[in-house]
Amino acid sequence: MKHYLCTAVLLLAAPALANDKQDFADCDGRNHPGKQDDGMRGESSISAYDSFRFGSGLSPALLGAVRGMVADNGRVAACTRALASPRLLPTQALRKAHLLRARGAAHLQGGNVDLATLDLDAAEAALADRTADPFYQRSMGASLKLLRAIALAQQGKWDDARALATTAREARPYSLRLQNVAAEILAAAPDQSGAPSPWNGVLRLDPAVGHRALQDAAKQANHADVLRLAPAVDTAIAFPDPAPLNPGFQPALPLDAIKAMFSGFAIAHARAATGDLAGAKRFRDALAAQLTDRKARLDARDAAAVPPAGAGPTPAALAAADPAAPPPPARPRDPILTLGEQRLRLLDLRIAQVEGRVADARAMALGSALPVDGSTIEMLTRLNAVLPAKDRLPVPDLAALTEKARQNDQLQLRQLAQQALIAPETPRTVIDYSKSRPNILGALVGGAVTMGFGLLGGIDRTDGFRSTPQADGTIKVEFVGNTPSEPLVQEMTLLRAAEMAQAAGRWGFAIARRADYTRYLVTSRGGFESSRVPTGHKTELFIRYVNDGEDPLRGFGAVSLIDALGPLYYEDKPGKR
After folding, report:
1. Any bridge partners for residue 519, and if so which?
2. What is the pLDDT of residues 328-375, one digit of tens each?
């Protein structure tokens, strides 16, 4: 789950006239390059006006929606002016590539694939001498691959798009943002039946993605993958008590319970489709019992409702006094009951189809609103195969469904370009971890073969990191980093969790839940926000220790994680300290 410590405010004020310096900020979000070697000065102040105009400070989902509606928001023009500015020195190749990449992403969001490709080519050429640098490979290099994969997907070149997205994903397996963008690209690719879920890598880093991954596989009728994902997804259904009656208020839906119900249904549906009718019926009976209990609690709530003082007689009392009076208005339909009963009917349809109860299955199909997805098409196709020609059911047009999904995916991929802009990293960007782990090299004991051994002896860890046991048995591990690189902060937190598992004598850990934050320095005038400056990131991981093989879908081995990230964060590099 992504959290942003900010509120977007639209001020009724005219924007300041853009100047040479502002073009840099409007293009890639950083201050003008100054005289630094790489030109990568800190992130710029974002005015309240620009927060709305450019989407800076908005959540990723809202940012994508805003930019999708308002073309490129002037970003392309700002980037073009910045690239031509004399402030950009010939030696500042990284900043030049950063600007080109930002303009390429803006072109992608506008659907201008050819122009985007030219900018991505130029950005790669500007940094051609860094291709062997691991920091480049994990940040700018991976980012450019993701953007190019989006461009290729827009052109329908899916084999090349998949290959690039996979390469980028493998370059940084512990970055939630990078894994998420790669999974989005791979999930949009056609012909995935039988392939492993593209969300597997994200699932380890953020268990909340499990529901989405499972639903994605279910929509494509990839029953095998649904069942592979099942152990990592919480499907325990526990509907909360009904909210008190309030005619003018619609209570919020219990989203966690609904997600669990949908995922449980998808698993039961896959079990039925693959012949495990007993497993499917267990969930069917459990869901039916939950819905019966829900209805009883709703009835009890309504019966116990007491009208407020002065409200007059209840509708029931009026009806008893005057049988000719119109009946009281019906209780609004409970959305949980509606959604649950729909799932029950669909599951009964699948079970009837698998059991060969053809007439029952056909009647259920005619009397139900079926979702139009790959799973429904597969189920109806199977049913029609055993029905007489005169009784066959209309099957949704797979070609039309595929085309509609392709168009939606293309739009979503265009909006995804902004999330592929991973902050560039160099050896000096990992200095936060050095400060938070003093004298790490001097404290290494027995680490010549693997850095997964003896890392913690005698090291006091107080700056930046914190760990707190939780009432549910998990441990909250958090890190605050004063860096523009969100993936770097996430990796530091994972590395700390691995160290803690190693110190506890455990094989590794699994993430139960997480929260990621962006920190801003906000300036206000007259009670209204006037500007904000991003000052860093924070990641909170709620972990539990696991043994080898205990949680294969979500478990991280402490030694393997430390060996993967240790060389980047432990090794003493010139200028790092």
Report:
1. 536
2. 555 677 888 888 999 999 999 999 999 999 999 999 988 888 887 778
Backbone angles phi, psi at 551, to 5 degrees: -140, 75
Residue 416, both tokens: 């995804």
Three-state secondary structure string covering 498-556? HHHHHHCCCCEEEEEEEEEEEEEEEEEECCEEEEEEEEEEEEEEEEEEECCCCCCCCEE
Alpha helices in 110-244 (DSSP H): 113-126, 134-136, 142-154, 158-171, 176-188, 200-205, 209-219, 223-229
Show Cβ contacts of residue 550 under 8 Å, excluding neighbours closer than 6 positions.
Answer: 507, 510
Contact 519, 39 (CB under 8 A): no
Confidence of residue 532 (pLDDT cuts 50, 70, 90): confident
DSSP state of 245: P
Find all residues with CB under 8 Å of 199, minimum gap 6, and list them.
183, 187, 209, 210, 212, 213, 216, 229
User: pLDDT tens digits for 219-265?
Assistant: 878 888 889 888 888 888 888 888 776 655 666 778 888 888 999 99
- Specify whether the CB–CB gap between 183 and 199 falls below 8 A: yes
SS3 category, 481: strand
CA distance 59 to 69: 15
Q: Which token pair is 352?
A: 């009837």
Half-sphere exposure of 78 (CA within 13 A, CB side): 24
Q: With helix as H, strand as E and coil as C, how does 422-467 read?
A: CCCCCHHHHHHHHHHCCCHHHHCCCCCCCCCCCCCCCCCCCCCEEE
Q: State the DSSP code for 30.
A: B
pTM: 0.75
* 3-state DSSP assignment of residue 469: strand
Mean pLDDT of the 430-452 span? 40
From CA 361, how far away is CA 382, in angstroms rounded? 11
Is 257:239 a contact under the CB 8 Å cutoff?
yes
